[in-house]
Write a structure and sequence with these properties.
Shape of chain A: elongated
CATH class of the largest domain in chain B: Alpha Beta
Oligomer: heterodimer
Number of strands of chain B: 18
CATH class of the largest domain in chain A: Alpha Beta
Helix content of chain B: 25-40%
CATH architecture of the largest domain in chain B: 3-Layer(aba) Sandwich
CATH superfamily of the largest domain in chain A: Glutaredoxin
Number of helices of chain A: 7
Distance between the termini of chain A: 33 Å
Structural class of chain B: alpha/beta
Radius of gyration of chain A: 18 Å
Strand content of chain B: 5-15%
Order of helices and strands of chain A: HHHHEHHEEEH
Largest interface: A-B, 18 and 18 residues
Radius of gyration of chain B: 25 Å
CATH topology of the largest domain in chain B: Rossmann fold
Strand content of chain A: 5-15%
Mean pLDDT of chain A: 94
Distance between the termini of chain B: 54 Å
């Protein structure tokens, strides 16, 4: 699936940039470390927007298209930030046959974003994840570290309300 | 050389160790079809068209990357192989926009040719989900239509080979597509408009912006006085579009065709190439005498200029301020020629035929309007000219050999070699020798700067002065030279840089040749040989003896480097960044 590119304006801090530049300074000159730098950058910023990819490209002296190509090839890289509350819906086999897709659809409808995106206020993000090993509770989702199991689509508004206050 | 013994289709053969199956088959006179393979720049074994059977191997192997070894038995045309290739083609076609009738590459599409060869009779056999195709016409010189893309990545490799890499493969699996970062249009990045992606594309996914309709409209407008100029490299390649062998000079037929297309005057960029040499060698001598910025670098190639502006914006002082021959020509037409002929420059429509796509970008640049009007109104490629000739029902092969019109159809041997890497340098040296010693060079041929190597160096002793020169073609080689210029570790006096590998003869606007030819024939050298032969056959081989150039200086510009010449024939450059933000 094509990755969602965030339309939310980039809000990087000078501290974050200093952290990233320190990583780049260590790795500069060795292109085999490009993915490592990207992983570190994602750790710092939570995702890899154009502004961050340009910093990586300029710092590592590679074309930004190369950085982008890698970021869209590997599932681990995100082009959209995580919200204050990141909702992960398990789409493992058990959850899926128990109707996890309905949960995703309902979340998207309620939050007016697609899976892989973040709401404009930065509060919620939705992602589909692989099996989290709680098949007994299928279908299951997590909001940050809290686990919600045996759900139906109509449970979604109630869960969201707890975090919207 | 260590040899290994193999069998291809039962035929015993001894080939150099380390050869790929593809190369080995070629020794045996067997053509294995390829789609993604481009020698040295794209050896990725991705398209699966070149699959062959190897005795004892678990599955078919890709011939373009698989090395031969002792005793190997290869089958290039077995039933299994043919079936595999056909299925691969059908799979490629399942997401291919099959509007072949109206496709710009219909007739010379490598995919179409393969489908014919393998008898693909049901192109919709695997039709199913369709990706969302990108379409990008953001640059003035080209269009990307991903509905025709086969993901061979030849354009990506060509772009990387130019040290530009503004396009690449994004996403993965079924969603894989060629584009720029963050799905933005290519004009957001530092594309240099060289068009190497276009000449390397096997299908109609990449093509130049078609300006032929604009040119035809001007020709059909009785109010317009339409003049055309043709670059040196066009005559060395245009014949390929009409079935001539690579390396055929079609200058005379080209002039005849242009006249029959209805151009009011058929002129030659060779005139302004000579004019460029007058201005550029004068500028060089001035810089040497007055302690100006050295090395001076040529400015004929708009792809190179754009590259320098994006990637070396702090080195622009090295660039000669001379306009390119195309622009000098246009500027002279709308000033001196218009005055001389009593034609209102507003009524002149100035067309250039170029081996180049960056020329389409150049005509729209600032500070390229000597008469207050665009110096050149439309620039078309060699391919577009061929299309116009075919569309006008002109039988090119039956045309007589004709001459260019006067006075701006006159060019010397020094001008015609502009189209090959090293040509501008050689032309400049011929005139510099005269300027510095007062005498003509004993031998007009400076063979050290000829040839298809990416970077060439030579030192000449002229009038007691050591002139150290460097010639580079292809912006990847230019980058290597520029790093030395930037760090100050070179002591060149004069550098020639052409944006495309091999110079204009291999420009982004030249006729398409299939990969099978590009990979096995030295097209660049063959086309260049046309220009060097033409030079050798000319009576006048030095720019300063071009009688039309002399006349224009007498009547209009005065001296090279004069105030008037600066107004009309020189330009300025802009600092650009890697990102358009």
């Amino acid at each position: 699936m094509l990755k969602k590119i965030s339309k939310i304006p980039f809000k990087g801090t000078p501290e974050q940039e200093a952290q990233l530049q320190a990583v780049i300074a260590e790795c500069k000159g060795d292109n085999s470390l490009l993915m490592h730098v990207m992983q570190q950058a994602q750790g710092i910023y939570g995702y890899l927007p154009l502004e961050v990819q340009k910093m990586i490209a300029d710092g590592m002296d590679v074309p930004v298209e190369k950085v982008y190509g890698i970021s869209t090839f590997y599932a681990q890289f995100a082009l959209s930030p995580k919200g204050e509350y990141n909702i992960s819906v398990c789409l493992g086999t058990a959850c899926y046959v128990k109707g996890a897709q309905d949960l995703v659809d309902k979340l998207c409808e309620e939050l007016k974003i697609d899976a892989g995106e973040c709401t404009e206020d930065g509060k919620f993000s939705i992602e589909a994840c692989r099996c989290i090993g709680a098949c007994g509770l299928a279908p299951v989702l997590t909001v940050n570290d809290e686990v919600y199991g045996k759900l139906v689509a109509d449970d979604i508004p109630g869960i969201l309300a707890k975090y919207q206050a | 050389m260590e040899m290994v013994n193999i069998k291809i289709n039962g035929m015993p053969l001894s080939v150099p160790n380390g050869s790929t199956i593809l190369e080995a088959a070629r020794y045996a006179g067997i053509d294995i079809p390829t789609l993604c393979y481009m020698k040295e720049i794209n050896e990725i074994g991705a398209c699966r068209i070149c699959m062959v059977e190897v005795k004892g191997a678990r599955s078919l192997v890709s011939a373009c990357v698989f090395p031969v070894n002792e005793g190997m038995e290869i089958f290039t045309n077995s039933e299994k192989v043919r079936k595999s290739r056909k299925t691969t083609l059908e799979l490629i076609l399942s997401t291919h926009n099959r509007e072949c009738l109206s496709c710009v590459r219909s007739g010379n599409c490598e995919l179409q040719a393969l489908c014919l060869e393998y008898g693909v009779d049901n192109p919709g056999r695997f039709d199913g989900a369709q990706p969302e195709y990108g379409f990008d016409a953001s640059m003035p010189h080209m269009v990307r239509d991903n509905s025709k893309c086969v993901l061979c990545r030849r354009c990506v490799a060509a772009c990387a080979n130019q040290a530009v890499s503004v396009i690449g493969a994004n996403a993965r699996g079924f969603d894989t597509h060629i584009g720029s970062a963050f799905e933005l249009d290519i004009n957001n990045f530092a594309c240099i408009a060289c068009g190497q992606c276009i000449v390397n594309c096997p299908t109609g996914a990449l093509y130049e912006t078609d300006d032929t309709a604009k040119v035809l409209a001007a020709i059909n407008d009785p109010e317009k006085f339409v003049v055309v100029q043709t670059a040196p490299a066009v005559r060395a390649a245009l014949g390929e579009e009409f079935g001539y062998e690579i390396g055929t000079d079609v200058e005379g037929k080209m002039a005849a065709a242009l006249r029959r297309l209805g151009f009011d005057k058929v002129f030659d960029t060779n005139f302004s190439a000579d004019l460029t040499i007058m201005e550029e060698s004068h500028e060089l001598v001035e810089r040497v005498k007055n302690g100006g910025v050295l090395p001076m670098i040529t400015s004929c190639s708009p792809g190179w200029i754009k590259y320098c502006e994006h990637y070396y914006p702090d080195q622009l002082d090295h660039l000669s301020t001379c306009k390119s021959p195309q622009q000098m020509f246009g500027a002279t037409i709308k000033t001196w020629y218009a005055q001389n002929m009593g034609i209102d420059p507003e009524k002149i429509y100035s067309v250039s035929v170029m081996p180049c796509t960056a020329k389409k970008f150049e005509v729209g640049r600032d500070d390229q309007n000597a008469a207050g009007l665009a110096d050149v109104d439309a620039s078309i490629t060699t391919r577009e000219l061929a299309k116009m000739i075919k569309g006008a029902g002109i039988n090119f092969r039956l045309l007589p050999e004709e001459q260019f019109d006067n006075p701006l159809g006159e060019g010397t041997g020094a001008a015609v070699i502009f189209g090959a890497t090293g040509g501008v340098m050689e032309a400049a040296l011929r005139t510099a020798v005269k300027a510095l010693t007062g005498e003509e060079a004993a031998d007009p041929e400076f063979t050290e700067v000829r040839g298809m190597q990416g970077v060439k160096e030579a030192t000449y002793s002229v009038g007691g002065l050591d002139i150290k020169v460097c010639v580079a073609s292809g912006t990847k080689n230019a980058k290597a030279v520029m790093e030395k210029v930037k760090s100050g570790e070179c002591d060149y006096t004069f550098i020639e840089i052409m944006g495309c590998p091999g110079g204009c003869i291999n420009g982004g606007g030249q006729p398409h040749q299939p990969a099978s030819v590009v990979n096995s024939v030295d097209i660049k050298a063959l086309r260049a040989s046309v220009l060097y032969k033409s030079d050798a056959n000319k009576d006048v081989r030095v720019s300063h003896e071009n009688s039309a150039v002399k006349r224009v200086y007498d009547e209009f510009f005065g001296e090279p480097g004069s105030h008037k010449a600066h107004e009309v024939l020189h330009t300025s450059y802009v600092k650009r960044s890697l990102y358009n933000d």
